[in-house]
C-alpha cells in the first residue's frame, strides 16, 4: 500500500500486461492468483482483501472471496446496497426504482414485483418467450446461408442483446418490440444504451471531478428519458386508465399486470397516483437495464463454452433428443404446449449454471456498517466493514478449487450430482445472481430464456469464434488483444461483456470421436509434408499455419524451395538420386496431432460399432452405448477402419507382405554418437537401399537442443527379406531384436553401420508389418458415408505418401461439403465426386508404392523405381 497512491500501483501492474478494457472480475481473479507477490506466506487465497484505489473508487473496497462470508452480508443480514448504486441509477430512474429507492419504498416495489417473477408465472410466459427465441433462431439460420454453409462473421452479442430486449418487453408487458428485425434499432434501445453511457460517466470521470453532470449531458439525459417514457408509458397508462382496471390487469399475467394487481390489492383498488406511475416506469427501465446485457452476454458465454467442450454439446443434444424428441422442428410447439418439460432438461440446466459459474457477469456491492464485521468460518478473526464498499466477488468464489472439485473444468454434471456427492455444489458458492432478499429479481426469467435458447437453438447450429475473419474485417491496424492467450475475454465497466461482441460464424457442425485418448498411445514417428503443403493455408487458420514449425522434428528449421530427398546406395553410401521437393517439411506425429487439435476437442472412448442410415442422415453407435446423429459420417480411423469394413466386407482387407520384416524405431545416443550420425546423413530424408533388398531410412524425429546431440531422437525405418537373417523377429524380446539388427550392420556403409551397432540394448522394437489397401469403390449411401486418410487408401510408407494423401482428402472433403451446403451440388453428388477422386488417387499411389516395395528385390528395377524418378512428389507434377 502506497501512502500517496494506495493500491493503484498494483492495478497498474495488472494493466501493464492486460488490455485496457478487461473486466473487473478478471482483475480480481488475477489479484487472488498472484497474491503471494504481496503476501508471501499464504497457503490459500485470502478470504478478504481491502483495496484502496481512491479516487478511482471513493471508499475502501472490501473484496470478499469466500461464499460463506458473502452470505453474512447478503443472506444472514442483507446490508443496504452501496450508495454508489444510487448515484449510478439516478440518471435513469431518478432513484424511484426498487434498487436505489430509499429502504421503505424499495421494499414496497420489490414485494409488488416479486410474484411477477416467480417460477410459476415465468413458466406461463414460456409460449411468448418462444416466439421471440424462434425469431432469434431464424435469424441465426440466415447467417449461415442456405443449408448451413460457413457464414460471414457477425457479432453474436448484438443478436443476443436484441433478443433480450424483445424478451423483456414481451415478458413485462406482452409488447412485441421487434428489436431483432429492426435494423435501425428501436428508439427505446437507442435511448437506453445512450443513457447507460451517461451513467458510466457518472461513476467515472464526472465523479472524480466532482461534477454531477455537464450541461449537455443534462439535455441528453432528459431526451433519453423522454424516449424511454414514450416507449413504455403508453402501455402502462392504457391499463391504468382502463375503466375496468381490475379486469384489464388480470387479463394477461405479464410482469407488469401482476405487479399492478398487487398494487391495486394493497391500495384497495385505487387508481395508482402519478408517483406510483413514475415508480412503475422507473422499475420497467430498471428491468430493461439490469436484464438485457446480463442475459445476452451469458448466452454468448454459453455458446463459447459449448464450442470449447464439444462432448458437453453432444450430451446436451442427447438430452434434448430424448426429452423433446428427435424432430427438431417439433420442439418449439412441444414446449409451447408443455412448458413444464423445460424442468426435465436437467443437463441443459447444468450447462446454463456452469456458464454462469465460469462467467459471472455482475455482482453486488453493499454499504459497510460500523457495528458489522465479517468473520471467517472457524476463526475468531473479525473484519470491520465500516466505511467500506463490500464487494461480493463471484469471479473468484465460483472458481475456487477448495470449494469446487475440478473447478476449472466445464462440468454440467455437477449440477445433477446428488447431495452428499463431492461434486454437489456448495450452496453459497454459486452466486451469479447474488443472494438473499436483494438478489436478482429477474433470475428465473433469465434462466428460462437461456435454457430455451439452449433447447431450441443449440441442437441445430454450431457457433464458433471467427477471429481470423473478424481481423480481416477490422483491418490490420486494429490491435489483437488477448487475455491468457485468448482473444475472447470478458470486458466492460459493469457487466462482463464478451470482447468485441464475440465475433462468430455459423459453421458446418461436426464432431470428432476416437476409440482411445492418444495420450495413452506413446509411439511417435516422423513424416514429411511433401506436395500437400499447398493445402495447409486453406485447412488451417493463419495462426496455426504460422505455428506449423512447432510440429517439426527441428522446430528451428524453415523449409525452402530447394529441399531434397536424397536416395543412397546403403551398401556404399553413394548417392543414387537427389529429388527436389520444394518446401518439404519434416514433422512428427505427436507434434502434428497437437497442432491440428488446437480448438478441436475429440471425444474419446467412443469406439464405433455400428452405423445406421436414416431418412435424413446417419446414426453412429458406439461401444459405450451412446449414439450420435449427423448428416454424414466420415470414416477416418486408419488402416483397420471399421467404416471401411462395414462398407466393403472382405474387400476391405489389406494385403500384407509376409516375406518382409519391418522395423520402425526411435533411438537416442550419446552426444558424440548422435553428432556422428547427424553429420553423416543429409539433413532431412536420408533414403538408403541395399542391393540385397534392404531398406534403411534415417530420419530425425525430434531435436530438443540443437547443439546437444544427446537430445536428438532419430527415427529409423528398416525392411529386409526374412531370408536375410533366417531368424524371425516375431516372439523375440527387445534385446534379441536389437541383437538381430546389429547382426545386419555389416551390410551397411557408415553411418548406418554404427547407428545399428550403437543401438541401446533396452531399445523398444515394436511389432510392425507392411499393409496396403488399394481402394475399391464403396456405396456412399447418397453421400451419407465416406472414407478419408488411411481408411480410404492404406499406402505402404516407402514413398512417404500417407500424410500427404490424407491432407489432400481433408481439403477435397471440405470443398465437397461446402458445395453441398451452398447448394452448388447435392450432398450425394458432391460426395460421389469426392469418392471418385480419392479412389483414383489412392489406387494410383498404392500401385506406385507397391511397385517401389517390390522393386527392392531387384536392384535394376529399383534404379528405375518411383522413388528415384519422383521422390515424394506426384508423378503428374514431375512430368510438367
Ligand atoms: C443472466 C442474467 C442475469 C444476471 C447474471 C443478473 C445478475 C444480477 C445481480 C448479481 C444482481 C445484484 C446486483 C446488486 O446487488 O447490485 C441483480 C439484481 C437485479 N436484477 Fe439481475 N441478473 C440477470 C438478469 C436479470 C433480468 C432478466 C432482470 C429483469 C428483467 C433482472 C433484474 C434485476 C433487478 C431489478 C435487480 C435489482 C434487485 C434489487 O435491487 O432488489 N436481472 N442481477
3D structure, described in words:
The longest helix has 35 residues, at 274-308. It is elongated and about 110 Å long. Helix 7 runs antiparallel to helix 8 (156-173), helix 7 runs antiparallel to helix 16 and helix 17 (346-358) packs across helix 19 (443-457). It is an alpha+beta fold. Mean pLDDT is 91; it is low at 145-149. Strands 15-14-24-25-26-23 form a 6-stranded mixed beta sheet. It folds into 3 domains: 25-80 and 365-415, no CATH class; 90-362 and 416-507, Cytochrome P450 (Cytochrome p450, Orthogonal Bundle); 528-588 and 658-769, D-Amino Acid Oxidase, Chain A, domain 2, CATH 3.30.9.
Précis, in short:
The chain has 880 residues and is of the alpha+beta class. The chain contains 32 helices and 28 strands.
Helix content range:
40-55%
CATH class of the largest domain: Mainly Alpha
How many domains is the backbone divided into?
3
- Under the CATH scheme, the architecture of the largest domain is Orthogonal Bundle
How far from one another are the termini? Answer: 73 Å
The bound ligands are:
protoporphyrin IX containing FE
Instruction: Indicate the radius of gyration in whole angstroms.
Output: 34 Å
Unreliable stretches, pLDDT < 50, 5 or more residues? 145-149
Sheet with most strands:
6 strands, mixed
The average pLDDT value, as a whole number, equals 91
